[in-house]
Amino acid sequence: MEKRRDEDSGAPAALRPKRPFVRMSGPKPTWTDDEKRSLSAQAKALAAKLGRALRPADLKRIKIPRRSFFAVKAQAARLGLYPRTRRIQRWNAREEQMLVLLAGKRKLGARSIKGRGFFSASSDHAPFWADRSVDSIAQKKRRHGLVDPKRSQRAKYAKRLTSAERKKLRSALRRNPQRKSNDEFAQEYGVSSSTIRRYRKEWSIRQSWHEAMQLPSSREKRKVLVEETRLRNRARWKRQKSELAERLEKHKQSLLARAAKRGRELEWRVCARCGREWPKTDRFFAWAPKRQGGTIIARYLRRRCRICPRKSS
């Protein structure tokens, strides 16, 4: 049975996304001598007809049965039928280990890796790796299985604005920058808010914090946020109050058992708010200062237990 391609990659098993096993059709048969002769003859005839050296785009006119354009292009490069525009720089083991660390453990994208100075000729570590493009880094990430499949699918099918739409958006942002928020522009053009923010940054049409807060949508968001915070705080206070009541009740039972064992009586105090009876200690009632002329002259235990001053729902 065929092995999955990911098993031969250099990425650790924990970093490779789980994908369903799909049986491939297997490698294509090697080029025969007749196919190579046919490719050479067609390439030379095409070069003579054009009167110049072949370019990669010219190879689309060459037809070899059961061979794709990319297969023809790769074989033509091997045979030296057209000059290569760039030299292939293969990845070494140190580069691949660094890529696995950056993209696998630190979850960095290809642009982030390139932007931080890695795989760049101007970097301090330039002797240890070649100058890689963003496309080269992204392709190597895909081969190692270090790409998030869901994120790749979202990026693949995300809407891209045309030149006319970008021109219209730019004029709208410049003409009317303070009446609509980024979310409203994103909903109108069918893109995300981050895309609108990126275009604002690219075109130098940024909004200040004060301008953004004056938008009606920002005010509505602020109201919703305040209400959510209020409800969340009330729920937290209620939870803390119940947890404190449980701890005090356990401490109360332990004091009762200890007093019964020693044959002593506890001094009790009733809470003035909730009416619960607790032992008269600072564990159940907080100390309060008694002031006279701005000076603390004494202190006493409050009449309310430690549960009651806490806010509740």
Protein architecture, described:
This protein is mainly alpha-helical and 313 residues long. Among the domains are: 163-214; 224-305, no CATH class. Helix content is 48%, strand content 8%. The strands form 2 sheets. Strands 1-2 form a two-stranded antiparallel sheet. β1 (268-270) and β2 (277-279) form a beta hairpin. α1 (33-50) packs across α2 and α8 crosses α9 (193-203). It is elongated, with a radius of gyration of 36 Å. It starts with 32 loop residues before the first helix and ends in an 8-residue tail after the last strand. Mean pLDDT is 82; it is low at 1-26.
Beta-strand segment tally: 4
* Amino-to-carboxy terminus distance: 63 Å
- Quaternary status of these chains? single chain
Q: Segments where pLDDT lies below 50 for 5+ residues?
A: 1-26
* Beta-strand percentage range: 5-15%
Q: What is the CA-atom radius of gyration, in angstroms?
A: 36 Å
Average predicted local confidence, pLDDT? 82
| Gross geometry | elongated
Major beta sheet summary: 2 strands, antiparallel
Question: What is the overall number of helices?
Answer: 11
Neighbour order of strands in the largest sheet: 1-2
Which H/E pattern describes the elements? Answer: HHHHHHHHHHHEEEE
Helix/sheet category: mainly alpha
Helical content (DSSP H or I, runs of 4+): 40-55%
